[in-house]
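pasting for the record
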Amino acid sequence: MRVLDERLIEVKSLINKGDLGAALALAGRIDDPYWRDYALRWVAEAYAQENPGKALEVAGKIATESLRDEVFRDLSYIFSKNWMFKPAIEASKKIRSEFVRKKALKAVSAMLARAIVEKGSAGMSLSELGLDEGDIEVLKPLPPGISLKNGKLMPGAELLRMKGEFRNAVVSQNEVAKVAPPKPSVKPLEPQLGGYLVGYFKLIADLANAEELQYWASLVGEPLRSRLLEDLGLIYLKSGNFEKAAEIYEKASRVSQLGFLLALKCLENGDAKRAVEFAEKIADPVKRVVLLEEMLRRGFLDEELARKVLTPKSDYVLARLLKFFAFELLEESKMRNDSELRELSKRIFDLGVKIQREYEARLF
């Protein structure tokens, strides 16, 4: 088992203080190559904002190839997000893994397209971006809707033009808009462009880019809006920000996985009532069944809450499912010789019998 080198903590502390030179020197003195590589990764990423060349130099000192590729990939993301496309391309070209390199270049290409959109219909010259035609060759194929004309990258698709104009709309401080500005009309997406956008949205979700997801979710309609909001909510939930994830949940119309995970978290905290509220937007019936089982296992045997979680068309279905869970728990209690689990099994079975008898009584 590897023992953590305490100098890693010192490296992180120096980075936090902004003393990157000292952090780099200390990282180089770490004997274990595994921990030295991780320290160099932190230093390289810290240099990325202020000194791209130094960041690339430090990343190149990482001995482990797979980790070095990851760092060059991350640097390409950081550079391109800050419109530093030349070093972003340089970072991508240093990646040895073909799969990782292509993924990095695709991300750079996507962010370049975003920059063109932000600029507007006039496009951007290669010199303005610090690029030359050789760099563009590396990025080809360019995203649908972006083309190179006379040394300028131009937005060509209706969707891309719409995004830039929509976001940059301004109302003078001395004027009051009498009516809300009309929503831009969007032509149906070409299959190629639609595929590009889906891939791009997946990429920014994989990168946990909350700002970018929020931006696009504010522009698109359903069902894509809910999909992006769900990805955004999952990012907040994984980072431990439950309330922010819950806030995103409220804004979306259908967020099955997010609702499921929020509900499970509530059950862990002993709040079955709020868990049921989050179950409302779960579209997957399997997730609802799993949630009901988890609720029962934790001893929440409330008839109305069970109905709201499962939303069965008939109480007969709910009754049969409760009795099924009861038998499953009974078998488990026998294997584990667990008297508490056996008692819980009996209570669930009794609830199932009660609901079934009331259902049958209403039939006659």
